[in-house]
Amino acid sequence: MRRMTGPVLRLSLAAMACLAMMTGGQARVPMAADGPAVAPTAAEVSRGLAYVSHQDGGITVLDLDTFQTRAEIPVEGQGARGIGITADGRQLVVAVRETGDVQIIDIASKMVVQRIHVGKNPEFVRVRGDLAFVSYEPSSTGKPPKAGAHDSKDDDDGDDEPARVAVIDLKQRKVLRHIVCGPETEGIEITPDGRRIVVTNEADHTLTMHDVRTGKRLKTVDTKRHGVRPRGIKVSPDGETYVATLEFGNKLLVLDRNLKPLRTVDTGASPYGVAFDRTGKHVLVAAARDQKLQVFDARSFDKVAEVPVGERCWHFSFTPDERQVLLTCGRSKETLVIDTASWQVTQKLPTQGMSWGVLTWPKAMGSLDQP
């Protein structure tokens, strides 16, 4: 057998790494004929892929080495909003508003392989292990929220019937149960032990905690004294702190591990997407109406940086190496690339439609996903 050396070996390693990223698997490092495994260099390993959902279309696949479009993946119907990815990186889990279902997309073939009906107006998706959690809102009216002076042309959900979270078994590809939440359930977070979920309920200004197995409501936190219309929610990497954005309060609500409110932090207008970085050092908030991505110290909550962005920038994700943040700006029809060393926008990637959310593979911290 001829031994691979020099450029031939390097090309083989790079090709295998890229193949692994495309298929969601792990690249196997080849063995030299008479020596140990040869580790690929940093330049030979792909940085991964990003997936951007469009609420008037499907999914755009971005190459994180070049930030060029790798592919466009259609969904059946329109209204791709919430998006998740399975633990092996092989399938996307997409909430499609028009059809009222969750669509499972095989990444390698770029085909919808399963449609799972959940209910009217599915929106937010979180994946953990073999389970997917999907919020849907049966009372959607197509009208702005009933919030008095707090009007929002970007929000078209109703306030009457409680929303629900469908718990989907991704192996069996079926809904296991429906958890009844509050009106207009928006964000979903999973407790570190995986046994409970915490959701934000916009219309009645509450956070609620539910048992995953039974659906029972375990706790309710009224946010009105701190701010109204909670939207995004995230738990810190160490599991000790939750943060929730209060859209019409222009606040970030900080809570302990038991959901006891600790303090509020002033943000720009209409904060929505929120995420910690991997170390838990920083908290990022997308202040949509102020068109800013704000960076806060996660201990003091002092503002560290503020990045001017586009219109209706709701969701974002770090790249897996945390060198950049990708921010989707729906009404600007672009995805922004933000350098995390300088907190400057370095690229503006035009999109074909109104982008909604973004996540990456390998998984990274973000307003939708979390490793």
Beta-strand percentage range: over 45%
What name goes with the CATH superfamily?
YVTN repeat-like/Quinoprotein amine dehydrogenase
Strand order of the largest sheet: 3-2-1-28
Q: Give the CA-CA distance, first to last residue.
A: 41 Å
Tell me the count of domains. 1
Could you describe the 3D structure shown?
The chain is mainly β. It is built from one helix and 28 strands. It has a four-stranded antiparallel β-sheet, with no helix packed on it. Strands 4-5-6-7 form a four-stranded antiparallel β-sheet, with no helix packed on it. A four-stranded antiparallel β-sheet has the order 8-9-10-11, with no helix packed on it. β12 (185-190) and β13 (196-201) form a beta hairpin. The model is unreliable at 1-44 and 146-153 (pLDDT under 50).
